[in-house]
Design brief:
The complex is a heterodimer of chains A (92) and B (463). Chain A has 92 residues and is mainly α. Chain A has three helices and no strands. In chain A, 71% of the residues lie in helices and 0% in strands. Chain A is rod-shaped. In chain B, strand 15 and strand 16 form a beta hairpin. Chain B is of the alpha/beta class and 463 residues long. The chains are: A mainly alpha (92), B alpha/beta (463).
Chain lengths: 92, 463
């Protein structure tokens, strides 16, 4: 799993960097402005990266919990939803 | 034949427009918008928003009602008519903030149902009392997985940047917004903000970075490449929620003490005078029962409140002072009054402007009430702004067929204060000429002296 997360992180950074070059979405009734689109890709990249950090934090917590013998379930469902959302970045 | 008139501010969106037929408000949905329209209704979002009072109601009517004006519309909707249309350059800081939060709340609720707002125009928000309500039913369309928030820049220009002008610098947005109509650009605002404002993550990203990235215009090929890129939904939700949290915490800088905010405490009213004034306005309102009363110089809304308590249904207030407006807006919200206070420089009311000088209507065309009150106002216009008394009275009497106007004589301490630093050029500013001029424009139903200094209230009727 750790390898998978590393892969996602790489993709997130790659997508954010690529989007930095410019953008304009196809559904726009307005001119969204390149500044706004590039900014959104950066903010989204940060949000995804923060999500990944949170994931690692949960994993670390559950690892420590397993060492100390308490078997509290970490937010496994949140983890799955997050991974599903982040996969969108792979479609590009 | 049908007598349909197109709304002059509704033309940008080719997917439909608004018409008026015999006082009814109708909206066409053109064939290109039909799929989105049906999809959005199938999610239940529209019913949910209408029942929560955040979206104006809609009902489908026979498209024939529009005749040829319908222009092949697939669907025609009817909406309840709003009593009064106001514009963001007339709103108080808190009004604009409430409208911004409404827009974000709608976008967040919509996204949960797979729906996106096509734009972020502040003109799509109106007020019922102090409660913001969304009016553009064609702004909703299907969300495409991975799409960017195309309206982000417009949201910043029409909501965020004008709010920041006041929050960071203490400068009200109204004059600039009125001049630019579509809001304030990040490029312009970023030149004004102090460098330390960049320490705020939200200002750094939404203003500084956006302006910077906008200036660095990319090549055509880079744009083509980027068109294929996508914004993960989780990122979009994050952007919307963090904007919402940020805006909810914005306040006017230093809550600058306003001239009028403490008026009721500091001015030369005795409490007997204030109660005489209240009684007069209460009698007037009870006799007229106005559906819409317009209060010019509303200050913090004391007399609008008296009118509403005595038979008036809706009060629209206007004041020049931003501090008083803030106070009035918050009071209206706290007490759930059907009262909307708006900014007005009576010497320079909102003009007809925008495309063809007809997109946004001037105040003169909109501010037509069943009643008007103008208390402790005329002397500010005549002596403070050098406006001729006869014209001031003509203007006030034209706003509504019935009203109450206060005359404050030169001997009054408030007028003395206005004259302190200037020459008295106002020979005609006398009670007798006030009465003659008013009587030439309307019947004087009643007049009462309310202070020892000689202040008088006049109840006029030109109906």
């Amino acid at each position: 799993m750790a390898g998978t997360h590393g892969f996602y992180m790489g993709r997130v950074i790659a997508v954010a960097a690529a989007a930095l070059l410019a953008a304009a979405p196809s559904h726009a009734y307005l001119d969204p402005g390149t500044g706004s689109i590039v900014l959104q890709s950066i903010l989204a990249g940060i949000a995804v990266a923060m999500g990944l950090l949170r994931l690692y934090w949960y994993r670390l917590k559950s690892f420590i919990a397993s060492l100390t013998g308490s078997s509290q379930q970490p937010e496994a469902q949140g983890e799955q939803e997050f991974v599903k959302d982040a996969e969108i970045t792979n479609d590009s | 034949m049908t007598g349909a008139t197109a709304e002059s501010g509704s033309f940008r969106d080719r997917r439909g427009r608004v018409f008026y037929v015999n006082g009814r408000v109708l909206r066409t949905v053109m064939p290109i918008a039909r799929d989105d329209f049906e999809y959005v209704r199938s999610t239940g979002l529209i019913d949910q928003l209408v029942s929560s009072g955040t979206l104006v109601a809609e009902s489908r009517v026979d498209p024939q009602v529009l005749g040829d004006a319908g222009d092949g519309a697939s669907i025609v909707l009817e909406h309840p008519r709003l009593e009064f249309i106001s514009y963001p350059y007339e709103w108080s800081f808190s009004g604009l903030k409430a409208a911004a939060l409404l827009h974000l709340d709608l976008q967040i609720a919509a996204l949960a149902q797979g729906v996106m707002l096509t734009d972020a125009s502040a003109y799509n928000v109106q007020f019922v009392g102090s409660k913001p309500i969304f009016i553009d039913h064609l702004s909703f369309r299907r969300y495409a997985d991975g799409e960017y928030w195309a309206a982000h820049r417009q949201f910043c220009e029409q909501f965020v940047n004008p709010l920041l002008l006041r929050a960071v610098h203490g400068v009200p947005h109204n004059a600039w917004y009125r001049g630019s109509v579509e809001g304030i650009s990040a490029e312009d605002l970023s030149k004004l903000l102090p460098w330390r404002s960049g320490l705020s993550w939200n200002i750094l990203t939404n203003v500084w970075m956006q302006a910077r990235l906008q200036r660095a215009a990319p090549s055509g090929r880079a744009i083509e490449r980027a068109k294929a890129k996508r914004l993960p939904r989780i990122g979009l939700e994050h952007i919307l929620r963090s904007l919402r949290n940020w805006i909810a915490g914005l306040e006017p800088k230093s809550k600058d003490k306003s001239v009028w905010q403490d008026y009721a405490l500091e001015n030369s009213y005795s409490s007997a005078e204030a109660s005489a004034k209240r009684a007069f306005v209460a009698d007037f309102s009870a006799a007229i029962n106005p559906a819409l009363i317009i209060d010019i110089g509303c200050n913090t809304g004391d007399f609008a409140a008296v009118a509403l308590d005595n038979g008036a249904k809706l009060a629209i207030g206007f004041d020049f002072d931003h501090g008083a407006l803030e106070h009035a807006f918050q009071r209206s919200r706290a007490e759930a009054m059907n009262f909307l206070p708006l900014h007005l420089d009576a010497a320079n009311p909102s003009p007809d402007q925008g495309w063809m000088q007809n997109e946004r209507q001037g105040l003169q065309r909109r501010a037509k009430g069943d009643a008007v009150i103008a208390l402790a106002l005329a002397h500010h216009l005549v002596i403070g702004k050098n406006l001729p008394l006869d014209q001031v009275l003509s203007w006030l009497v034209a706003i509504a067929p019935r009203g109450v106007i206060e005359f404050v004589p030169k001997s009054d301490p408030m007028v003395q204060r206005l004259l302190q630093m200037r020459e008295d050029l106002f020979d005609d500013y006398e009670q007798s000429s006030f009465e003659d001029l008013l009587a030439a424009r309307a019947r004087i139903e009643k007049s009462t002296q309310i202070s020892a200094s000689g202040r008088r209230l006049y109840w006029f009727d030109r109906a």
